[in-house]
């Protein structure tokens, strides 16, 4: 996972296009499994996904990342990027 995300301390928002959303969401899911969600993106507050669907693989993968962030007292929001 080190090759995909290195610690990025200033990023507060991620904007994911429809074409990259699933790949990035799965990378975030791996961070959640490794419990390094605050080490890699400590300032992240918002994720915006182009044409975010209420269900599906992108929503599920990001959901796991959000759950771990909330448990670590670093909540964030996910919203549709219009």
Quick summary of this structure?
The chain is α/β, with parallel strands linked by helices. The chain has one domain.
Percentage of residues assigned to helices: 40-55%
Question: What's the number of helices?
Answer: 3
Oligomeric composition of the shown chains: single chain
Output the helix-strand order: EHHEHE
* Biggest sheet: strand arrangement: 1-2-3
Distance between the termini: 29 Å
Global shape: globular
> Please, what is the average pLDDT?
85
Low-confidence stretches: none
Secondary structure: number of strands = 3
Largest sheet: 3 strands, parallel
Q: How much is the radius of gyration in Å?
A: 11 Å
Strand content: 15-25%
Domains (count): 1
What structural category arises from helix and sheet content?
alpha/beta
Q: What do these coordinates show?
A:
The chain has 82 residues and is of the alpha/beta class. The protein has a three-stranded parallel sheet, with no helix packed on it. The protein has helices at 21-34, 37-40, 57-71, and strands at 13-16, 46-50, 77-81. Helix 1 (21-34) runs parallel beside helix 3. It has one domain. Helix content is 40%, strand content 17%. The protein contains three helices and three strands, in the order βααβαβ. The relative contact order is 0.24. Helix 3 (57-71) links the parallel strand 2 (46-50) and strand 3.
């Amino acid at each position: 996972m080190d090759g995909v995300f290195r610690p990025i301390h200033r990023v507060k928002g991620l904007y994911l296009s429809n074409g990259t959303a699933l790949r990035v969401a799965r990378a975030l899911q791996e961070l959640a499994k490794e419990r390094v969600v605050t080490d890699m993106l400590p300032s992240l507050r918002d994720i915006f996904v182009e044409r975010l669907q209420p269900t599906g693989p992108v929503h599920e993968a990001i959901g796991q990342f959000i759950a771990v962030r909330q448990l670590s007292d670093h909540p964030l929001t996910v919203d549709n990027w219009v």
